[in-house]
Amino acid sequence: MQWTGSLNPSLIRSTVLTQFSKTLILFRPNFSPRKNPNPIFFSAASSKTLKNHHQRRRKQSSDPMRTAHFSTAVDADMCNATAPSPGVDSSFKRKEHTSRRKQRVETPEGLLRLNLNMCSKHGDLSEALRLYDQALVDSIPLCQYHYNVLLYLCSCSSSATPSTPQEMRSVESVPLSSRLEKGIEIFRRMEINKIVPNEATFTSLARLAAEKEDPDLAFELIKKMQISGILPKLRSYGPALFGFCSKGAAEKAYQVEDHMAKCGVLPEDSEITALIRVSSTTKRGDQVYRLLQKLRALVRQISDSTAKDIEDWFKSDAAEVVGMERWDVKKVREGVKTGGGGWHGQGWLGKGKWNVKRTLIDDNGVCCGCSQSLMSIDIDPLETENFANSMSKFACQNETKANFFRFQDWLNRNGPYDAVIDGANVGLYKQAKFSYSQIKNVVEGIRKLGLSKKMPLIILHSRRLKGDHADTPYNKNLIENWRKSGMLYATPTGSNDDWYWLYAAVSCKSLVITNDEMRDHLFQLLGNSFFPRWKEKHQVRLSLSRRGPQFHMPPPYSTVIQESETGSWHFPTTGTGDEVETPRQWICATRVAVNAKTVPQTQPVKPQLSSIFLEQKSTDAYRDIGNCL
User: Fold this and answer.
1) C or N terminus of the chain, fewer CB within 10 Å?
2) Is residue 549 within 8 Å of 444, Cβ to Cβ?
3) In the predicted model, what is the mean pLDDT of residues 88-111?
C-alpha cells in the first residue's frame, strides 16, 4: 500500500489509542469469553502483535515517512490477534469451515433442524408439530433426521420430565390419541417421500405401539426391521418385551427373548427382571430358575428393584412347591465342577418354604445368615491372555502406538511384577498435594506383607516427576532410587497412565494397588464380561491409619450370584462401590427344612486365599447360559 498526501497526526494518535483499547481488553480481570457476545481471544498471536506494535512505535519515531502505514499495519495485526492459532492456513480453514456451517444452518432445512433440536431438548411436542405443519406449507424438504426427531417426540413426550410450567403445559396439550395419530401420519409421509427409515425410526414406532398397549404391533415392527436389514438394538425390544410382561403374556415375552438371542442382543438387568416377574406371576418355576441362571451369567450383581422381585418370588406359594425331593448328588457335584464353581444348573433342589433375608458376608466368605461358605470362581488363563491382547489394541487406538510399544518392550525386559501401584491414585489419596512419601510407605507395606517377591512396579505420569515439589532433595532421592531399582515407569506426555498400570497388572497376572473404582469411559471400553471378574480378584484397596497403610485384599469368594450344592441361593446387590466403608448387602435364600436323607452331610468348601491369585480353568459366561437352557 502506498500513501500519497498528508495525514493529520491527531488522527494517527486516535487510531493507535483505539487499537490499544481493543488490545487492553485482553487483560481485563473480569473478562469472560462466554459473557462477551463478541470476544477477542488472547493467544500467541496476540503476544506477538504487542511485541510488533512496540517495535513499530520505535521505528515510527525515527522514520516519520512510515507514519501513514502505521494504522493499516496495526489493523492487520489486530485482526490476526483474534485467531486462536498463529498459523495462517489453519485460521483460513477454520473460517472457511465456520462459513460453510453457517450457510447450512441458515438454509430452511438447517433452521428447521435447529428448531426441532430445541423442541427435543425441552420435550416441546406441540411446537415441533407446529414447525412440521409449517414446513409442509412452505414445501421445505424433510430428511431422515427431521422425521426421527418428530417420531421421537411423539413416542416419548408422556415420559418426558419438563423443567418449566410452560413445557409441562406443552406436553399436556397433546393428548395420547393425537400423538399416536400424528406419529402414524408422519411415518406414512416418510414412506411417501421415500425416506429410508433406520433403527431409531422403528424404535420410536415401537414405543408408539407400546403406548397404544399393542405389544404385538411393536414386535412386528422389530421383525420388519430385521427383514429390512436393520440390526435391532436392546432399546428396540423394550416396548414389545415390557408390554407383554405387563400384560402377563409370558409365552410371547419368551418369544421376544428368543428373537433377541438370534439377533445377538443380550438383555440387561431390567429386561431379565421383567421376565422373572412375569414368570413368577404366572407360577412358572422352571422359567424363573432358567432366568436366575441367566441373571447370574450376564449381570452378576442385582439392583434394588431386581432384589425386591427376587424376594417376592422366594416368598411366594409357587416357590414352596417347585423343586425335586430327591436328586442325584453326584450329578450336582459334577455340575458345580463343570461350571467352574458357584452353580450346578440341575434345577430347584428340595421343597418347602424359603427363608429369605438380607445379610452380609464375612471376611472369610461365610454368609452371616445361613453360615454357608461362598465359592471363589476361577478365571481361565486363556481368557486373561485374550483380555490382555484386546486391551493392548484398545490402548494403541487411544495412545500413541510408539509410546505404548516402548512400554510393552520395557515390561518384557524388566517384568514380570507381582504387584503394580497406581502411583497417581496412591500419591493423592487423602492428601492435599501429591505425596511421594505415601507411595514409599505403600511399597514398604507391600514388602512387609509378602505380597510381592520383588519390588513392585510404580506407574507415574512424567509430569509428576517434574516441578518444585519433585525437585526437593528428599523426593528427588526417592525418584532416583526407584529408577535405579527398575520399579518406576514414567508415562510420556499426553498419555493416560491408566492404560499402562492396568495393562501391566493384567499381562503380569499381578495385584494392582489402587482405590480407583474403574468406572469411567476407559474401563467401559473393556466390557462387562471379563473385566469385573478380573478386577474382583486382583484389586487391592488402600486405607490409612496411624499404623500406616492398610491393605484390603480381594475377597476369598466371588461377588456373583451363587447356587450351592444344597440348593440355597445368594444374591449380591450392587452396593455403593466402597465395600471398605459400607459392606455390600446380600440376599440369602435357603429352605427352612431340607430332607437330610436326600442331601449328604458334607463340609462346605472354603477356598484358600492363594486361589484368589491363581487363575485356573473356567468356562465362559455365555457357555454358562447355554448349559442352563
Assistant:
1) N
2) no
3) 63
